[in-house]
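Fold this sequence, please.
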Amino acid sequence: MKRGYLTAAYKHHIYAEQAVCLSLSFKYKGDHTPISIVVDKKNYIYIQHKNYTRFFDQVIILPDENLYDFIGKLYSALQTPYEDTIYFDSDCLLISHAAELNTALSVLDFCVPGEDLKTGVYAGKNIPEWLTKLNLLYIPIFNAGVFRFNHKGKKVVEEALGIMHQADAHQLPKADGGLNEQVALGIAMSKNNIHAIPFENDYHFSFYNANSHLVLDLKQGICKFTKEQIHREPYIFHYTPLYHAGFYYSRSRRLLMTEINKLRKAFDIEPTEFFKPKLRDHLALIKNGKFFKDTR
């Protein structure tokens, strides 16, 4: 097979539900590029029970020891059945311009929108000092929720996985969910003289650090928000962190769930709900003044 999409869902059934929505968002827009999913045994049983396998061309099972934290994403990416792969985090949705996105991500063997940094501070690291210790000239910084690679570019993913297994030697920072796979990929890219592609268009942005309410209409192909004081209208909407329990009462979360369930209804599948607050979450929301009324 040539070009295909790939995602992963492990440890919790919520991620399988997200992956289904990802697949549906492409089908809804008429993009029928093959899409496969990597799962653990728990989610394989879940998607079989829910009859979700029909939304994926292939379902690939990996053992639990490979599917944990962010490193599981790299193990998953390496299982691709395609010669040319675009990997998506499960919490992504296609908004519009699938063909343009595919073209934009085809200019290098490994493609990800972002920027190359040589100065400043990132993830608590003084970049010039860090680069000197790693013997690198630059470090690509990006959101790894979407990246594309071909057979040659797969080497970057393989090297990034090795870097994550040698985290101390590479002074790899941690993220909220384990070692930072984005930085590992960036180091591997720099070692192979591969640069991040520029954001000539809003190919892919997450809601993380958004400064405004979300405007979202999947049918009309509309997604708008302000992120770090810049207006964004991404082709791929990466809705992290809205699915977390801490955003349960937020206006943007409610809109996201409404639109996702409209999408699911169009394919005759039941509504879903992402993580709900537990007692600890409720207490944190009360403490931060976000219980029942959240202006985000």
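Residues 168 and 179 are 10 Å apart (CA to CA). The mean pLDDT is 94.
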